[in-house]
Amino acid sequence: MRGSGRGLPVAIVHACLRGGGAGGRGHGGSPTAVLDDAPLSDAERRRIPTLSGTSHAVFVSVCGGRGDEPAVSLRFFTTEGELPACGHGTVAALAFLAERAEGDGYRATLHTAGRVFTGRATRRATHVDATFDAGRVGLRAATAGECDLVLPALGIAPDATAADIRVGSPGRSRLLVPVATRSALAALDPDPERLRTACDRLGFLGCCVYSVPTPTGRMAARVFAPSIGVPEDIANANSTACLAAHLADRGFTDIAVEMGDSLGSPATISAGTSGASVHLGGAARVTRTVRLTPG
């Protein structure tokens, strides 16, 4: 596929802006390609992120619904293939849909692989605030063997982690690794090939390394996802859902996770827990539209 004055319109949405919310304009965020679904092969879908300069692409199809709540199917792709879920891609898709809808409020029933859930968006003057139900997150303690494979690839000594290491799964498993300080997090320099080999062997999507949260639930994180073709993610909302579920046991009902600083595109994702469910939120802005033509 290649860029052209004709062809498929692809919106570039910066998802999970830093400093969004009701009163802020927001900046940074994760550039995400969002487009109406089209009769493309999976190989062509995998090319969209490269051609649009994004890590992920979301294919949107409005497939009915009732009253003022449409049913919308979402499919997520990276260069490596299709994903069953993508949190920041869901934020981007809700912003894309809200910008095309009438009124300031938007609500839809979202269908992804294996899940049906509600998404909401509110249009602001400069961006869209999106929230959705991330569902239940599976958590377990990491094994010694898993840590022995992954921590050296991350460049982390076993005695340098801040607390227990967990495996979280909102659909695909990833390792959750705490470090004591933001400076330790910023200094990380993983070995990409070694990390991918370890994650592929264990069936992990990747790793989320995070700093100890403040008393108000604010923290920084870096997500390395080599097994889906993303060496480091600017914003990974599903990993934020895993952190929210894990930290709920420590009394945190709401958290705000800052990502993307190491990549020069600061992002923030909010998450909260209600019973066994996690809800996610982020601000997003549709920045431009490009056209890509199969060929």
TrEMBL record:
Keywords: Isomerase. GO terms for cellular component: cytoplasm. Gene3D superfamilies: Diaminopimelate Epimerase, Chain A, domain 1 (3.10.310.10). GO terms for molecular function: isomerase activity. Belongs to the PhzF family. PANTHER family: BIOSYNTHESIS PROTEIN, PUTATIVE-RELATED, PHENAZINE BIOSYNTHESIS PROTEIN. This is Putative isomerase YddE.
